[in-house]
Input
Amino acid sequence: MHRDVDRSLTGKIGRVTGLIAPGTIGEVMLPFHGGTSAFHAHPFDKTSVFPVGENVLVIYFDPPQTVYVDELPEVLKPRR
Output
């Protein structure tokens, strides 16, 4: 049986508020239900490290409060 997959946060850009690294439970702030909420975060590839303040891309949402993230692609990064 396939469980229903919630894709409501897939593709969202979040800001890291707690170090995301292998073996840790990081934190990311994401737009959610008209506001902003904190979610537990893990690196999608299980090896990347994302410091506080970095923007990341949500690859997978595991309800109720966990996301798996990856580096923000160059095309989505703000121009300087």
The chain has a mean pLDDT of 90. The beta strands are 13-18, 26-32, 35-43, 55-62, 66-71. The chain has no helices and five strands.
